[in-house]
Design a protein that fits this description.
The chain has two helices and no strands. By secondary structure, it is an all-alpha fold. The longest helix is centred in the middle third of the chain and has 22 residues.
Length: 112
């Protein structure tokens, strides 16, 4: 097939163009019934819950669960343990300024 023949064929196939309509009132009514979406089938197996939710929905759900949990804790008189006022001490020398990993009195490894 020559290039000229294929180009002329292409031009004849794509020579017409479809003009856009200005709205639904300018469309011609089809004599056929409207196309409906297929029926929803319930699939077997474990339902896929979280991956179908939007990010905003997941955040709202997490906030709601946290609020329910805090209300339940308040109703039972339980409070969360805080770390305020707790100082970390060194296991080697007992000082407050550092831990055992950064202790200046840490014995050096006298290996080979």
């Amino acid at each position: 097939m020559s290039t000229k023949t294929s180009m002329t064929t292409w031009f004849t196939v794509y020579s017409h163009f479809v003009e856009p309509l200005r709205g639904p009132m300018f469309r011609t009514k089809s004599p056929y019934p409207d196309i409906l979406p297929p029926d929803i089938r319930v699939l077997l197996g474990r339902p896929k819950r979280y991956w179908q939710k939007d990010v905003v929905e997941r955040v709202e759900e997490d906030e709601k669960k946290a609020a329910e949990k805090s209300k339940k804790m308040q109703a039972e008189g339980v409070s969360k343990a805080l770390r305020k006022g707790i100082f970390i001490h060194c296991k080697i020398c007992g000082a407050v300024a550092h831990n055992a990993r950064t202790c200046p009195w840490k014995p050096t490894d006298g290996g080979s």
